[in-house]
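Q: Can I see a sequence and its folded structure?
A: Here is a first one.
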Amino acid sequence: MTEGVPRYTAREAIDLVTSGFTELPGPVDPVSRPSPPGEVGPDGPLSWQGYDASRARAAARTGEEESVVCGTATIGGTATVLISFEFGFLGGSLGERTGDRLEAAHAYAREHRLPVVSLVATGGSRMQEGMRALVQLQRVARQSTLTRAAGLPQIAVLRDPTTGGGWATLGAGADVVLALPGAQVGFAGSRVRPPDTDPAAYTAEAQLAAGAVDAVVPPAELPGLLGLWLHLLSRPSAEPAPPPPALADTDLPATGWEAVDNARSPQRPRAAAYLDAYLDRRAAISGDRCGGTDDGMLCGFGVLKDGKDGGRTVAYAAQTGTATRPAGYRTAARLIRLADRLRIPVLTLVDTPGAANDAEAERQGAGAAIADVFGAVAAAGTPVTTLLIGEGGSGGALALAAPDNTWATPDSYFSVIAPELAAAILKRPPEEVRATADQLRIRPQDLVNLGVVRGIVEPSKSPS
């Protein structure tokens, strides 16, 4: 046990997030479990001596019949299927009966069109059942995949500890991954790691830094954040997100270089300001699930503010004016695909001088990451709206732009290449950079004439 980190029982974890819980009946005769050759005798499929007695002691100690408790609850006003692991029951391990319960819970969620929240605390697969326990991970993965295909959201809350196959299926495989502070999180449990390994690498905070967790949440804040996430992810809409109004009252630029100056101005409103003005409540996802994060890419979901579209959920992927890292593109692609599956419209805010092109970015797969975003936008069935709010630097910006539904603010520009770089490639002297900017036709009004953007948004008008 991690020092100072509480280990909640399954029921205590449930009480953290809801005051009302109705347990689902345990499956009596699961039809989907493959029948083993011959009957399973005492002490399980391996006849592991003392296994039945260990189960009986675990049941007496915890008051539970298995290592997982499944039921229904309302969290923040949204009905959900709730799964909670009991670590006191044989280390929260997954055996065949655990698999039965998890399968039944997901089947119930699909039948009743409910999201699934998993409060995970497990040491992995149950040794006393051998490979029959390990293959439960395939069952769990299949159920999660079926629920995902049904368009239902899945949220995981990682408790102490979350290791082994439970982390690699219900935990890391969820759409949104939250974790309690200080929780052990990792594929390798504490007793099987290399002896010289830094234990800090196996924590919720380390997984957040590595892009595998969306947020580390104190217990007192968990009910509110879970309720917000369930609200945001459970409200599909077929209507596209409206483009936000411009935040700066800027005249259209007279020249290409003036457009560049406007977009590069330190006083120009950035993505955070646009999101604050556009959305009432937001919840962010973080990380690319491949070991990286990028603070220059803001991704998440929020509620549209008042107006004819007020109250709808919109997903957002917003560049903040920096060179976008590969992790940022992969996070944006994850966001767009999740929104597409849940039928939630997407808003992208384009603002970057271009994709990061340093050696480390190349080692991290910059080209593949940009291609991933192009593919996610192209394949999206849910409507995608784009607003160019600053610099539109080449393909690193275009990757987030919606074909036929991109808009521009007056203080923005979009270019196949930065004017300075274009002049350098053409071997022009520095004094010709401004003329090159004009030749590139990068002003917002040029982009409209070229058919690259649909229109130029104006500042919102205050009521008179």
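Q: Show me another, different protein.
A: A second, unrelated one:
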Amino acid sequence: MRETRLLVLQKKEKLFLALSLAAVVLCTVLAFGFAVPLQAAEPQVLPDTTGLEQYMLVDLNTADLSALCTLPGVGEKRAQTILDYRTQNGPFERVEDAANVPGLTQTIVDSWAGMATVS
């Protein structure tokens, strides 16, 4: 009777192992069968950015209120002050001349390095 039980358990173990192996094979086939194949990616060509810096710089002599507000330390009030100063005194000769605008300090103007220009 013990031997019969052992034989039954061994058959169940073999059946379990066979079904487990079949499940692994099925999962592998499904995974590779439905996987999206890798496609060769073409190298990305970046656009020519030469000359774009002129569009990124804020020209203190031509900028409007919203463009001036993109400069560090400049809100609508300071931007309007810059516009008023420019109207009364003419165009700026250098970016550093903006420090003469009431409410602007040399520190603020220095923080515009690489962001502001004059034409």
